[in-house]
Amino acid sequence: MLRICEEGSEGVLRCKFGAGWPPSAAVGDFRRADGGGVLIGPLDDWNPTVLIESIVKTGSFRFHGARPVLRRMVVSVSLPVSAIVRVLPVHVAFGSTAAAAMLRFSSRARSLDPRAEEKSQRGMIGITMGFEWYEPLSNSSEDIAATHRARSFYDSWFLDPIILGRYPKEMVQILGSNLPELSMNDLSKLSYGLDFIGINHYSAVYIKDCLYSACEHGNSWSEGSYFRTTQRDGIYIGEPGEVDWQFVYPQGIEKVVMYLKDKFNNTPMFITENGFAGNSSSIEDALNDVRRVKYLHSNLNSLANAIRKGADVRGYFVWSLLDNFEWLDGYSIRFGLYYVNYTNLQRTPKLSATKYQELMYNFHIELETHTALK
């Protein structure tokens, strides 16, 4: 998925989410500023090289828009392949090949911006990942090591090669030659790094070792040999949300940001998704979404702590403005600040729609005050 974000004259960053491509390919004259010469047709070849070139072409077209803006930002959104491997009955080689294709696309991303030579006008190139916070189930060295493996197999699989120029050591130790080799050309292009890291954050889990410890369930050896659990001694990691995978753990967003700050030399960050999933059966309960307001309030306070500690966080996007189709959950859950009637598409503001404006105003004032007192 490609996200195009534009900074308008008023300084507000606006994003067009879901500018996807395959199985379609863009063809035609990409020099036409009005886009009239560009056609979208079926993609007949799923070869990774063909896919990458189609993505780069489409992204290049997106950067040639007719409407002038102050800044454009291309965000490559990667669903961690380890998650795909867990959901689908596929071999680890598939996951490795798909991940390598994503990395090679990242190495080509700079060519998406036709103004790359003009640094003052250059667009921002970044990658957005899903970041759950992983907390060791215990203080044992095994569980701590398992937590590092979990991060390596879920997020660092992509970020380490792009920013540090190498695969995570935990993956190398376990997968070895099963990891696709990145050529010197790939590494050279990846060495440009990222202008920012996008963070999609919702929840947290505990991690238990399954490599050196007894473990009835958990990921396979090829996925890092660890077990995800939401409970320690029968107590949940946070207040259960309204869906089975989300727990209210507000300190998680601060911990994720500080972890990325310390590991990747404080690369600029955007919180590209953060929100509360609701599944209220009545419209009245859905509109009076007090739990969503509390979730956003606590997460923004936690994020403010990270910024006060020096984390270079450039922006925050709540997920989402409107109720919409949600991945595997479809229309069964709602994240929106506005309630959508899926029959007639009428939109009604929830409590969170009005409270969010107040929360962001207080968030801004709090950070301005902190800066003034430094």
From TrEMBL:
GO biological process, one term: carbohydrate metabolic process
GO molecular function term, any single one: beta-glucosidase activity
Record family assignment: Belongs to the glycosyl hydrolase 1 family.
Name the record gives this protein: Beta-glucosidase 18-like
Pfam families: Glyco_hydro_1
Gene that encodes it: LOC104215710
Entry annotation: catalytic residues: E273
Signal peptide: none
Taxonomic superkingdom: Eukaryota
